[in-house]
Design goal:
By secondary structure, the chain is α+β, with helices and mostly antiparallel strands. The chain has seven helices and 18 strands. It has helices at residues 6-14, 19-31, 33-69, 72-109, 251-254, 264-275, 301-312; strands at 115-119, 126-129, 135-138, 143-147, 155-166, 175-178, 182-186, 190-195, 201-208, 211-215, 221-224, 228-233, 239-243, 256-262, 278-281, 291-296, 314-319, 322-327. Strands 1, 2, 3, 4, 5, 6, 7, 8, 9, 10, 11, 12 and 13 form a 13-stranded mixed beta sheet that branches. A three-stranded mixed beta sheet has the order 15-18-17, covered by helices on one side. A hairpin with a 5-residue loop joins strand 10 (211-215) and strand 11 (221-224). The longest helix is centred in the first third of the chain and has 38 residues, at 72-109.
Amino acid sequence: MDKVSYSMIIRFFNGECTAEERDAVIRWVNRSDDNARRFFAWEEMYLLGKADSREEARLIRKAEKRLERVTGEEKTRVRQTVRLWRNIRYAAAAVVVAAVAGVAFHYLSGPSHEWVAVATAAGETRELTLPDGSRVWLNENSSLRYPEAFAPDGRSLEMTGEAYFEVTRDRRRPFTVSNRTMSVRVLGTKFNFRDASPSRLAEASLIEGEIRVTGNNDEGSITLQPGQKVELNTVTGNMKVTEANTALDAVWHDNLIPFRQADIFDIAETLEALYGVEIILSPDIDGTETYSGVLNRKESITEMLDILRNTLHISYEVRQNTIFLSSDK
């Protein structure tokens, strides 16, 4: 199935297409630079129009509820407000359609081979090397757009979904990656960047170096140090910084789990996060011993525990989604 229609792309944006249709859209995006440019432009306009429609619909519903509680002259004013918002909504829709058409014409008639676009399907990850030597791992259901050659004064990229970056240091050309929610600016570092729809949270986790994270809607800017994560709530506009084992956020890209002076409580918390289980520790387990090293992530939690039990001197019992750990000394 290789034929891609406009209605299929709209279903793709709405998350309503079949797995076969989704794979067809991904293949179509990767087939040519022109297809990729059109897709990213349409996606941007679609998200803008969708956000506006949601806000306008909320205001219309609010006015209509108020209309139920008022009478006389005030009811007339509220009716006028509702009609005004509906007119604005239709006008906004017309503007979005015209803008999409204009952008599509620009990309179809403009020069080719200026930008590169890559997208991944469900269950697929992809490693890329950028023009400056930086490396990117793109997680499933994600996309990345970058120029074939970076500008002399900066390196700018656009993405959706989740990606892990190892950025080549270049003080003359800051590296900036943006999504619909926020942007990250760096000189040289390792970080994970995630904004997966329909989640309300966008997050950046710093593993090495230093990054500055800025909200796209005036939520502010925050500079992170290694071991810190920032979350931006797209509904409230709040940005929150927390201390975390940020390397765990990037385990998906290489399946390596790093531990540094981790005690049994740290290890249990890590395994819970990675495998979605609950771990209960027996009181006889020694919490003072620590472990440092890097483990290859296994398919199941029991495979991981089989590797750890000789080193940590533990035994385990599995009951449905709960793991009971006890001392094996």
